[in-house]
Design goal:
Elements lengths: L1 E4 L6 E10 L10 E3 L5 E6 L4 E4 L2 H5 L4 E3 L1 E4 L6 E3 L4 E9 L4 H4 L11 E3 H5 L1 H12 L5 H15 L8 H12 L6 H8 L3 H12 L3 H22 L6 H7 L5 H12 L3 H12 L5 E4 L16
Parallel strand pairs: 1-11
Antiparallel strand pairs: 2-9, 2-11, 3-8, 4-7, 4-9, 5-6, 5-8, 7-10
């Protein structure tokens, strides 16, 4: 895996150029679950459209939406992704509060679980995809970076997210979702109800759900880090470290956000997220996506 350092456009938190070849026979491959996260995700699927299903049953019947450029909204449930024999492309993590600058609309307006990039941004996204798909490995991430920078320049001057929403995000992110909604609102100087209305208008989810998501993401990242080192933490210890009352409450969070238990997720998904990628683009000044760098994360 070759790595390099690049400056991301404003609002882009991470980028990975990937190439994955499956070793298991297609008949026994479970779906890949694209988990909710604290970033919006754009996937430029350069070799074949990405088939996204909203439920396991839809995935089993191959029902869903196929995307050349998949825009994953700010959602609270998994997307079920087909796992073809081979796939290549570029995945981009976008801060939800930067959606206005990058995509031209607030994250709350991404009402579908996944949408085609052209439907969200317009013909410029189709043109960008054509350039990226025509490029060779190692060139695609640079083209995506340049294309997103052009979109951001075009959207310059659009209204930014309200300061109360930015402040709420900052407090919840720093506390890894463990600060109460009441405390967040008190520190900002507004009522809990008013703050939740503002957050929902910008992100599509309220303050409580945002905190729940950030706490789950922190716990899940710790689990992945342990698995990558060959020493996964005990689930009871993981629950305690991230503010869950016990193992059962952590299990509930997993079922809510992944559609399955932690142990089943490990069995189905860890062989996928541990696969190597072709090229990772990172930035020393940008926070990487909370998902592991090798995951197709929607």
């Amino acid at each position: 895996m070759a790595s390099t350092t690049a400056a991301f456009p404003p609002g882009v938190r991470g980028m990975v150029e990937y190439a994955v070849t499956e070793s298991a026979p297609a008949a026994v491959r479970p779906p890949h679950r694209g988990l909710p996260s604290s970033t919006l995700t754009l996937v430029f699927a350069t070799d074949a459209p990405l088939l996204c299903s909203s439920t396991f049953d839809d995935w089993a019947e191959r029902r869903g939406n196929s995307h050349d450029v998949c825009v994953g909204g700010f959602h609270l449930r998994p997307v079920y992704l087909e796992r073809p024999d081979h796939q290549e492309g570029v995945q981009v993590a976008v801060h939800p509060l930067a959606a206005r600058r990058v995509l031209g609309l607030p994250a709350a307006e991404l009402t579908e679980l996944t949408q085609e990039g052209e439907a969200v941004v317009g013909a410029r996204m189709r043109a960008l995809f054509s350039r990226v798909a025509s490029a060779g490995p190692g060139e695609r991430a640079t083209l995506v970076t340049e294309g997103l920078a052009a979109l951001i320049e075009r959207n310059d001057g659009r209204d930014a997210a309200r300061r109360e929403v930015v402040a709420a995000w900052t407090l919840l992110e720093r506390s890894r979702g463990r600060m109460s909604v009441t405390e967040v609102a008190s520190r900002i100087g507004v009522s809990s109800r008013h703050l939740s209305s503002l957050v929902t208008a910008e992100l599509g989810i309220g303050t409580k759900n945002l905190g729940d998501l950030l706490r789950f993401e922190s716990a899940h990242s710790s689990l992945l880090a342990g698995l990558a080192c060959g020493s996964a933490p005990r689930l009871a210890d993981l629950a305690h470290a991230h503010g869950y009352a016990d193992h059962a409450h952590l299990d509930q969070a997993y079922r809510r956000f992944t559609g399955t238990s932690p142990t089943r997720w490990i069995a189905d998904e860890f062989p996928i997220v541990s696969l190597p990628t072709v090229r990772r683009i990172s930035s020393e000044t940008s926070k990487p996506p909370a998902a592991p760098e090798r995951t197709l994360h929607l």
